[in-house]
Every structure is written in C-alpha cells, then in structure tokens.
Design goal:
The protein has four helices and eleven strands. By secondary structure, it is α+β, with helices and mostly antiparallel strands. The longest helix is centred in the last third of the chain and has 18 residues. It starts with 15 loop residues before the first strand and ends with a helix. The model has no long low-confidence stretch (mean pLDDT 91).
C-alpha cells in the first residue's frame, strides 16, 4: 500500500502583497482554537487561561494578549484562542482546560489576513461596516461583522495594523474584497 503524506498549504497560497503603502499578508503561521464554555463554567475557563498562559478572559468585543497568544470573545460562551501554529497546541489547550471547556481546532476553517500600513482605517471605511475610529475601536478591539457578503472577524492589533478572519471556504472572495478596496483607496488617495 502506498504511503500518503498530507501537507498543509495556506488557503490563499501564502499571499504577501503591497498595495501602495499597505501590506496584505496571509498569516498561516497562526492557529485558531475555539473553546466552548459550559453553562456556569466561565470562571473555570478563565482560571485555566490565566494560570496556563497568563491570558485574561476577554470581554465582549475585546482581545486579551499574553506573549504570542491571544484570546478573543467569539460569542456568548465561546472564546477563540489565537497562537502559534503547531500540531501540539490543540492538545495543550485541551490539557490546560482539563474538561472545563470544549476545544475545537478551527485553524483550517479560517483564512487570516494581516493588513497594515498608513491610511488603513480610511481604506477600510468602504469595506468594514464598523466605526473604526480609534476611540471607538482601539487596539485590542475585536468584532464579528461582514465584509461584503462574507462573515468576518476584525481585530485591531495596533493603530494601523489589523487581522481579518473569514471562512476559508470563501478565501478567494475574501482576498478579492480586501485587495479591491485597497486598490480603490490607493487610486483616490495615493500614498496616503
């Protein structure tokens, strides 16, 4: 019998683009783990995250970060954990929670883009139906929203640096929406 080895490939082919001063980079080095919190189990999950990674439980529409790991509020009774991609991390999370939460690896279900550069907030005004003013959506903010016809999660990491997540099943449409918006913006405000 032939031996078959499966190799993971980025759903967007490892895209790394520059559109004017803005960079669009696929973050296939990140893993995404979903933790479903059982009824009345939030304190136990919060204790496990803090004791294992010094990672605070995130408030709604916020991201908490410790080192190279982040937690974001995904929905009521759900936390999404972002961290370095490795085959061991899902097991580490499951071991840390020790039955206090239900763990599912979501890494391959999402396309993750990092978009950064000057003028990114103004460019996103056409794409993201959120008030991205830094007073309303500061670094550390996160929200579920829509990008064109696709569900997405938007995280603001720094003033001009965002992570955008959307379903890997629509990854090409997701990338097209982002690059079309950035190209349009570059045409009307070159080098902004």
């Amino acid at each position: 019998m032939a031996e078959i080895t499966l190799t993971s490939i980025p759903c967007l082919g490892g895209v790394d683009l520059r559109i004017g001063a803005i960079r669009v980079l696929e973050r296939d080095d990140l893993a995404l783990i979903s933790v479903a919190v059982p009824q009345e189990g939030e304190a136990a999950v919060a204790d496990a995250l803090r004791s294992t990674w010094d990672l605070p439980m995130p408030a709604p529409q916020r991201v908490s970060t410790a080192g190279d790991r982040s937690a974001l509020w995904g929905a009521p009774d759900q936390v999404l954990l972002l961290g370095p991609r490795s085959t061991e991390w899902e097991g580490e999370v499951a071991a840390a929670l020790d039955g206090k939460g239900y763990v599912t690896d979501q890494t391959h279900a999402w396309a993750i883009l990092e978009v950064r550069g000057p003028g990114i907030q103004a460019a996103f005004e056409r794409l993201v139906p959120l008030d991205l003013d830094p007073e309303m959506f500061p670094p550390g903010a996160a929200a579920r929203t829509a990008l064109e016809h696709m569900a997405a999660i938007v995280l603001r990491l720094e003033a001009e640096r965002f992570l955008l997540l959307s379903a890997s099943s629509t990854a090409q449409s997701f990338l097209h929406a982002v690059t079309t918006t950035l190209t349009w913006y570059e045409e009307i405000a070159p080098g902004a």
